[in-house]
Fold this protein.
Amino acid sequence: MLYALTGSLESGMLYAIMALGVYITFRILNFPDLTVDGSFTTGGAIAAVMIAGGTSPIIATIAAFIGGLIAGACTGILHTKGKVNALLAGILMMIALYSINLRIMGKANISLLGTDTLVTNVNMLLVMPIIVLLIKFALDWFLRTDLGLALRATGDNPRMIRSFGVNTDNTIITGVSLSNGLVALSGALIAQYSAFAEITMGVGMIVIGLASVIIGEALFGARTVVRATLAVLIGAIVYRLIVALALRVGLEATDMKLMTALIVIVALTLPMVRGTMRQKALIRKRAAELEQAGPTDAARGGGI
């Protein structure tokens, strides 16, 4: 049990970087970006090929991040300059990345066993919290800069921010690019942690990222950017713990996609159900108050 808990914490922190990327497009830009499934694999593929070829793991991880930036920029350009629907642009880029990733890897999977990686001989529970928090603080800082504020305003009200002279095409391209850069960085770290990269490692990542964001917001709220990014990090860890618990109670690994979909459905519908119940309770309370106040008012009316 302790081993499963430790593994969940380690992988949760690695996936938390991907969840931060999904948070940028899903919550800040309101952009349904499905490029994530492809760019996650792109990050793992670039890192694995370069490390297996003898390149420093640090340089390979940076190259993976840059690869994700480029993939995201292509999606952003396709949407803003090519006037392609955001959802369709993400799907097209995801499909294109499948072939590109195969070209990068040269085969369906690459093993990193016996090679030095960033996670070799490293205590993940000590190092990863520092790395993840540094990325979170950097993202918090970026979202408070002029460009970051323009990015947030673009997601909230693009027409208004355009009236202030901001080029929303550039902010969308920047946001989608940064999002996929973080996703690819997570893919590179996951490949090194798992000691292999394969062409299907990114399948379903968008749903896992959404589950992390939604769980985090449902548990901790998202009133400020600082709180929202922290909620996303914790949501990613909570998601991995839920998955580990599901495996412990007897579910098969093949059931995890269904499990993820159910988690997202519950997290999406729970706030609505809670709001409806709260509203009904308020109506009942108000009706009871009016019922109690009725005879009193009548008595006052008789006295007059």
